[in-house]
Write a structure and sequence with these properties.
The complex is a heterodimer. By secondary structure, chain A is of the alpha+beta class. Helix content of chain A is about 30%, strand content about 25%. Chain B is built from 5 helices and 5 strands; from the N terminus they run ββαβββαααα. The longest helix of chain B has 18 residues. Classes of the chains: A alpha+beta, B alpha+beta.
C-alpha cells in the first residue's frame, strides 16, 4: 500500500504547468467569496481572486483522489478531517484519498485572514464551505463528463463511492477524470443536505498514522538534499545583544566543519553533519555587546507588573460606576493571579532547509505561516515572493511557535545559506528552543469584586498586565483597538459573567521589554481562563455557594457555556461523594468559538498534586471527525496541565535560567489523568478544537486543590508551599 | 568503526564521541529516529541495542560497535508489527514526531512483558515525552499491541 506521505509534494511551478497531465485527470479549484468569512472578516484584507484552477483536488486515471491541503498538519488532524469534508461532497471512496501539503500560493489563502496560514483553531470552519464546494464542483464535472459520454441527462446520473451510474452505465471517476478536466467548472453547485452526510461526523482514523508509526513521515529536520550542509547558530545570550567579534579558528578545526559565517542574529557553523556543527559551535569564541538586556530579571519584571496593576490601564470594557460600587459593597474580594513566560517546546526543534538558486529559492520547513515566511525570504534575496517555493513538511508540533510574524527561523536559515553560498539546513538544539525567545508573555491579573447581600457580584474590576503579542506585527491595525491588543484581553473583556454584573471594568497595561513574545496554544485565553475561572471560584466560596450553582446563576440560561458546564458536571458526578483525600474542581471557558467545561479530580501524593481524572465537555458546533475532537481535548489538557504543574521560564541577569526538558518539564505518561471527552450534539456555529481544551484545565485543577486543601493557588506553575 | 544496523553492516567514519543518533540520521540516512533533547530526557531517539531500548542521543556510536542496532525503519517492512497495528487501530499519533520513540519503547516493553500492567506501562513509557498529549491512547494501544502480539504468537 502506498502511504499518504509518499504522495509527491508538488512544487507550485510543476503543479500549475502540468498538474492535469501529471494526474491524467481532473483538476479543480473553487473560491468562496464571503460565506465562510467570519470573525475577522471585517478587518481582514480581501481574499485573493480565484487564480489557481487546480488548487484542491486531483483525480488520477487510477481513481486516486489527491487532496492538496492548504493547512499545515502539526498533529491537530487536518490531514484527515479536511479531506473528509471534500470527499463527502465528491462522493469518492475514502480509501482512494491521498493527501499532500499544498505549495505556498495565493489560491491557498485563509478565507478570513487573507494569507496562507494555520492557526487560531480556524482551519475547519474557515475552509469548510470552500472544501465542500471544491468536492461538489469536481463531482458535478465528473457527472457532466459521464452524461456527455453516455449521451444521457446529467440528472439521470448518480454517484456512489467513486463511481458514476446511470441506467446500465457505470464508470469509475478515474476513467472520466481526463474528460472532466476539459469541461468548465460549474458556476454554482448544490451541496448535500447535512442529513445525507456519510463521512462528516463519522469517527474516522487518521490518514497519516502509517507514515508516522514507521518512521517514514518526513519532518523538516529529516530533509535530505544533495550537498546539503547542516548548520547551528550561536545566538545572543541575552535579548537584544549584538555581535561584537568572534574567532572561528577552533571551530574550523573541528572535523566535518565546512564554514563559519556571521549573520545579524549570530554566528553560524556549517558542517557535514549536525554533530560537527554543534561541536564547532561550542568551540566558537564570541564577544557580544549585551546591552540593556543583560540586566533583565523576571523578578524585577514581576515587581514592575505589580506596580502597574495599581494604576489604570487602557480600558477594554466598562459598564457602570465600578469604583463607587466597590466602595459601597459590604463584601469586597481582591486577588492577584500570575503566570510566567512559557516556551512552546514542540517535540521537533525548529529547523529550516534552504537552497538558493539563480533567481529562485526553495525552502523545506514545517511552518504554520507560509505567506509571511515566503515574503520574508523573498525580501532577503531580492526576489518576488512567487520565486520562493515553500515545501511544507509535517510539523513536529506547532502550538503557535511555527507561526511567527517575524519569520525568525526562516530568516536565519536564508541568511546563513546566502552568506555561505551553500544549501543549508539550520537546526536548533533544544537549548536554542527553550532559550530562543518568542514566549507566551508573563501575565498579571489583578481583580477586585464586590458581592451583594445574596453573594452575587455587583462590581468587578480586572486589570491585566502583560506584553502585547500583536504590537509591531502586521496584525496590529486589525487587532489593536484603542490601545488594547484584543488577544491580551480575550476571555476577560468578553467574559460571559460580565453581563450579570452591573458595574464592571477590564483594563490593560502592555509594558514593553526586550523579551520576544508570541502566541502559545490558546493565546490570551491561556492566562485569562486561569485568572477568571479561579477568581469566580473565589467569589463562589466567599458567597458560600456551590461553584457550579454560582456559575450557572451568572451565565445566561440557554447559553452554550451552561450547556457544557451542565454536561461536564453531570458526567463527572458533581456533588456526589468521592474517596477520602480527593476533591473536584471545575472551570468553563469559551475560546476560538468553542465552549469547553472541565471537571478535575485531584489528590495530593507526597505533597504533590495528582490529577486522576478530567471530565471534559465541548460544544464546537457541527463535528467533522469525533476522533479528532476527542484527541484535541486530550491534547489541550495535557499541554495546559503540564504548564500548570511545571512550566516556567525565568530570567536572571538577562539569561533564561532553563534550558531543556529536565528543568522545563512537560507532563509525562505516568502523570496522565484519565480524560473523558463528551461532545455536545450541536447545530450551533462551528468553532475550533485545537486550542479550546487548554484554558480550563489550570483553573479546574486549582479549584479542586482549593476544595481539597483550602489553599488557593494564584500563581502558575502551582506551588503548594 | 563497524556498526550492525538493521541487519546490515556499515563501516562508519565518525568521531568516537559522536552519538549514535547523529550517525543514524546524518551518516546512514535513517531519519526515522528523532532528535528531541540530546540529553536522554525525551525518548524520541529510542532504538534497540541487542533488543534493549536505548537513548541514541547520549550513546556514542563507538560504544555499540558490534552490537545489533535496530531502528524504527526495520521494526517491520509494512507497519505489521503489533505495536504499529495497535497504534493505527487506536488512532494514537498526532504530530507524530515522538512516535518512533514511543513505538520502539512499547515494542521493547511487550517483548519483555507480554502482558504488561498499567504500572508496567507507566514505568516503561514515562521516559518518552509527547507534547501533543497522546498518552491516553498510548496506554490503551500498548495493551492492544500486547494482545495482538499474543494472538500472533510473537510473545
Amino acid at each position: 500500500m502506498r502511504d499518504p506521505a509518499d504522495l509527491p509534494a508538488p512544487s507550485r511551478r510543476r503543479f500549475l504547468a502540468t498538474g492535469a497531465a501529471l494526474s491524467g485527470g481532473l483538476v479543480i479549484a473553487c473560491f468562496v467569496p464571503s460565506a465562510a468569512r467570519r470573525a475577522f472578516a471585517a478587518a481582514a484584507p480581501p481574499a485573493p481572486a480565484p487564480v489557481d484552477p487546480n488548487a484542491f483536488v486531483r483525480i488520477g486515471a487510477d481513481g486516486t483522489v489527491s487532496v492538496l491541503l492548504k493547512h499545515s498538519e502539526m498533529g491537530q488532524g487536518v490531514w484527515t478531517s479536511l479531506p473528509m469534508v471534500l470527499a463527502e461532497e465528491l462522493d469518492c471512496d475514502w480509501k482512494t484519498v491521498r493527501v499532500a501539503h499544498a505549495p505556498a500560493a495565493p489560491a491557498y489563502a485563509h478565507t478570513a485572514f487573507g494569507m496562507q496560514m494555520t492557526g487560531g483553531s480556524t482551519s475547519t470552519w474557515e475552509s469548510f464551505e470552500q472544501l465542500r464546494r471544491a468536492g461538489a464542483m469536481a463531482r458535478a464535472m465528473l457527472v457532466a463528463a459521464a452524461a456527455k459520454k453516455w449521451k444521457v441527462d446529467p440528472a439521470s446520473c448518480r454517484t456512489e463511492a467513486g463511481f458514476i451510474l446511470s441506467g446500465t452505465h457505470k464508470a469509475g471517476y478515474g476513467e472520466l477524470a481526463e474528460d472532466a478536466s476539459k469541461l468548465p467548472a460549474p458556476a454554482t453547485v448544490a451541496l448535500k443536505d447535512p442529513a445525507q452526510w456519510r463521512l462528516i461526523g463519522k469517527p474516522t482514523r487518521r490518514l497519516d498514522s502509517r507514515a508516522k508509526v514507521t518512521g517514514r513521515a518526513e519532518f523538516g529536520i529529516d530533509v535530505q538534499r544533495p550537498g546539503l550542509l547542516v548548520a547551528t547558530l550561536a545566538r545572543p545570550p541575552v535579548f537584544g545583544a549584538t555581535l561584537e567579534r568572534f574567532d572561528a579558528t577552533k571551530a574550523k578545526a573541528v572535523a566535518g566543519v565546512v564554514d563559519v559565517v556571521a549573520i545579524p542574529n549570530g554566528v553560524a557553523v556549517l558542517a557535514k553533519h549536525f554533530w560537527a556543527a554543534k561541536t564547532g559551535r561550542d568551540a566558537l569564541e564570541i564577544t557580544w555587546n549585551e546591552g540593556a538586556g543583560a540586566t533583565l530579571s523576571s523578578e524585577a519584571l514581576r515587581d514592575e507588573y505589580r506596580r502597574l496593576a495599581g494604576t489604570r490601564g487602557a480600558v477594554a470594557k466598562t459598564a457602570g460606576d465600578v469604583d463607587a460600587a466597590l466602595a459601597a459593597a459590604p463584601t469586597r474580594i481582591e486577588a492577584d493571579y500570575e503566570l510566567p513566560f512559557l516556551a512552546h517546546a514542540p517535540m521537533e526543534p525548529l529547523n529550516c532547509t534552504v537552497e538558493i538558486g539563480k533567481d529562485r529559492c526553495e525552502i523545506w520547513t514545517g511552518t504554520q505561516f507560509q505567506t509571511p515566511d515566503q515574503a520574508a525570504a523573498a525580501k532577503i534575496l531580492g526576489l518576488e515572493p512567487e520565486k520562493v517555493t515553500i515545501h511544507t513538511t509535517f510539523l513536529g508540533g506547532g502550538f503557535g511557535r511555527r507561526a511567527n510574524p517575524a519569520s525568525d527561523f526562516i530568516i536565519e536559515a536564508v541568511q546563513v545559506a546566502k552568506a555561505a553560498g551553500k544549501p543549508v539546513k539550520l537546526v536548533w538544539t533544544r537549548e536554542d528552543d527553550i532559550r530562543g525567545g518568542y514566549y507566551r508573555p508573563m501575565w498579571l491579573s489583578r481583580f477586585a469584586a464586590a458581592l451583594g447581600k445574596d453573594g452575587t457580584p455587583v462590581a468587578w474590576s480586572h486589570t491585566l498586565v502583560g506584553q502585547s503579542i500583536i504590537d509591531g506585527t502586521p496584525f496590529a491595525p486589525m487587532m489593536i483597538k484603542d490601545g488594547v491588543d484584543v488577544t491580551s484581553v480575550e476571555g476577560a473583556a468578553n467574559s460571559p459573567y460580565l453581563a450579570a454584573i452591573p458595574a464592571h471594568r477590564v483594563d490593560l497595561h502592555s509594558p514593553k521589554s526586550p523579551v520576544t513574545v508570541l502566541w502559545w496554544r490558546s493565546v490570551g485565553h491561556s492566562h485569562t481562563g486561569f485568572a477568571v475561572e479561579s477568581f469566580v471560584d473565589e467569589l463562589a466560596h466567599a458567597a458560600k455557594q456551590d461553584p457550579l450553582a454560582y456559575r450557572r446563576a451568572l451565565l445566561p440560561a440557554g447559553s452554550r457555556e451552561r450547556r457544557v458546564l451542565d454536561l461536564a458536571a453531570d458526567k463527572a458526578g458533581w456533588g456526589q461523594p468521592l474517596a477520602k483525600g480527593r476533591a473536584r474542581g471545575l472551570a468553563v471557558h469559551a475560546s476560538f468559538e468553542s465552549f469547553v467545561a472541565q471537571v478535575a479530580e485531584v489528590s495530593l501524593e507526597d505533597g504533590r498534586i495528582r490529577v486522576h481524572r478530567v471530565t471534559c465537555a465541548i460544544d464546537c458546533g457541527p463535528v467533522v471527525n469525533p476522533l479528532t475532537v476527542e484527541a484535541q481535548m486530550q491534547s489541550g489538557i495535557v499541554y495546559g496541565l503540564g504548564a500548570a504543574l511545571y512550566g516556567q521560564l525565568t530570567l536572571k541577569r538577562g539569561r533564561v535560567e532553563q534550558s531543556n526538558f529536565h528543568d522545563y518539564r512537560a507532563l509525562r505518561l505516568d502523570e496522565m489523568p484519565v480524560v473523558d471527552v463528551h461532545i455536545v450534539d450541536s447545530k450551533d456555529k462551528m468553532g475550533g478544537v485545537g486550542e479550546p481544551g487548554t484554558p480550563p484545565i489550570a483553573p479546574a485543577v486549582a479549584n479542586a486543590v482549593f476544595a481539597l486543601t483550602g489553599k488557593r493557588l494564584r500563581r502558575l506553575p502551582f506551588a503548594l508551599d | 568503526m563497524k556498526l550492525d544496523i538493521n541487519g546490515r553492516s556499515h563501516e562508519i567514519d565518525a568521531p568516537d564521541d559522536m552519538p549514535l543518533l547523529w550517525v543514524l540520521r546524518d551518516l546512514v540516512g535513517l531519519t526515522g529516529t528523532k532528535y528531541g533533547c540530546g540529553m536522554a530526557q525525551c525518548g524520541a531517539c529510542t532504538v534497540h541495542v541487542d533488543g534493549q531500548p536505548m537513548r541514541s542521543c547520549v550513546t556514542p556510536a563507538s560504544a555499540v560497535a558490534g552490537q545489533k542496532i535496530t531502528t524504527i525503519e526495520s521494526l517491520s517492512d509494512d507497519a505489521s508489527h503489533p505495536v504499529q497495528r495497535a497504534w493505527i487501530e487506536l488512532d494514537v499519533v498526532q504530530c507524530g514526531y515522538c512516535q518512533s520513540g514511543q513505538v520502539m519503547a512499547a515494542a521493547a516493553l511487550i517483548r519483555a512483558k507480554p502482558k504488561p500492567s498499567d504500572a508496567d506501562i507507566d514505568a516503561a513509557m514515562a521516559g518518552n515525552l509527547c507534547r501533543c498529549g497522546t498518552y491516553q491512547r498510548i496506554r490503551a494501544a500498548v495493551h492492544r499491541a500486547a494482545e495482538l502480539a499474543r494472538e500472533d504468537g510473537h510473545a
